[in-house]
Design a protein that fits this description.
Strand content: 35-45%
Number of strands: 22
Largest sheet: 6 strands, antiparallel
Radius of gyration: 23 Å
Shape: globular
Order of helices and strands: HHEEEEEHEEEEEEEEEEHEEEEEEE
Structural class: mainly beta
Oligomer: single chain
Number of domains: 2
Number of helices: 4
Distance between the termini: 73 Å
Length: 379
């Protein structure tokens, strides 16, 4: 009787727990109200796949880091871009952004159906360190819906970090449209607002990093962060943003410390090592030899972005982030795109590009256009 009674009590308890969970998910706030204490942005939208991802196809690709050195046969980046559509060709407008100045070089790469292409950074943008943005465009050069682009890269850095990462893809969400030309007649704007394109990341996570101090049985580690806020205007270039990265660093005993780093166009090379984050006590004391830590962070600072196609702008007090990380420790070396905890979805973000007809690609002049907006009176 007692065993049977215990089984009955377990069934009742299990049923109650499941019922309570369902009620919580169905309340007025719902899962979309989920947040992470201490972090801005939407954790729910991130968890539900409403943001960019390095595990899907898209109409825009972000390659978070590339570098090359003409004086070295080793320091270089091998970049691949693939058109996964078996029926359609595509023109891709490729922007090379210099991390030091945010100045831009651009080119067109046209891919036939099922085609992949590979190049090294030293051929197209030698002696530059930066990041790439690849935008699918129509025959007039307007950003267009083409959720079939994928990419990856293999990198050897000046600090001898070696890693391979996937391109981060943003899908177009509003159907088979191109973006209209802005009122200036020379540019077009991509809106990363969950309506036209995926949300961009807001707060990022460095899942785990080893101590940067060597010890008995613990080799010296070197963990780097390659972090940036995407340039908001590819037609102008230049450093339009000056802000701060705010970090919450956690040791493996659940203690939390805060720190900061300056951010302009891209996290500068002298600040990329994780030990550059200024904490009290310093990070090597927080994570001593043989231990591990992890961190989450976001950026704050003023940024003006285009909010519609009619020349309207909006002032943001924070900005989205993208980036990757790499670690060397002993005989191991590798890297990955930083994970993001929350999405930047209030009100969203925009990137404006010049409209230049490509000399190749599909004939899609007649495709319908549809704009979006981050402010009132959308274009």
């Amino acid at each position: 009787m007692r065993a049977s009674h215990r089984r009955l009590m377990f069934r009742i308890f299990f049923t109650i727990c499941v019922t309570v969970s369902v009620i919580q998910l169905g309340t007025g706030g719902g899962t979309r109200a989920q947040g992470i204490p201490g972090l801005p942005g939407s954790a729910s939208d991130a968890a539900l796949g409403l943001g960019v991802s390095d595990n899907k196809l898209g109409s825009v690709l972000f390659f978070n880091y590339y570098t090359s050195n003409a004086l070295s046969s080793v320091i270089n980046t091998r970049i691949s871009i693939t058109n996964a559509n078996p029926y359609q060709d595509v023109a891709a407008h490729v922007f090379f952004i210099d991390t030091d100045t945010c100045n831009i070089a651009d080119a067109f790469i046209c891919l036939t159906r099922n085609q992949t292409t590979t190049f090294v950074a030293s051929d197209l943008d030698p002696n530059v360190t930066g990041y790439l943005v690849v935008v699918a465009v129509d025959s007039l050069g307007r950003p267009t819906s083409f959720n079939y682009l994928a990419g990856d890269e293999m990198v050897v850095t000046p600090t001898a970090h070696r890693f391979s990462i996937q391109a981060v893809a943003a899908a177009r969400r509003d159907g088979n449209y191109s973006s209209p030309v802005n009122s200036d007649g020379t540019t077009s704007t991509l809106f990363f607002n969950g309506d036209q394109y995926d949300f961009l990341p807001y707060s990022m996570m460095l899942d785990s990093f080893p101590s940067q101090v060597s010890g008995v049985g613990a080799p010296l580690a070197d963990t780097r962060l390659y972090v940036y806020t995407p340039l908001n205007n590819m037609a102008l270039g230049g450093t339009t943003f000056r802000g701060t990265l705010f970090f919450l660093v956690h040791d493996d005993m659940e203690n939390t410390y805060s720190g900061q780093l300056p951010l302009i166009c891209y996290l500068t090379s002298d600040k990329q090592r994780i030990t550059s984050v200024r904490t009290s006590p310093n990070l090597n004391t927080v994570v001593p030899a043989g231990r591990t830590g992890w961190a989450k962070f976001y950026a704050f600072g003023s940024q003006t972005v285009d909010c519609n196609t009619e020349g309207g702008t909006i002032q943001l007090s924070n900005v989205p982030l993208l980036g990757a990380t790499a670690t060397k420790i002993g005989s191991f070396s590798g890297g990955y795109n930083l994970r993001y905890a929350t999405t930047f979805n209030a009100p969203g973000y925009s990137i404006t590009i010049p409209v230049i007809p490509p000399s190749c690609g599909p004939g899609t002049d007649g495709i319908q256009t549809r704009g979006s907006s981050l402010c009132q009176n959308p274009g």
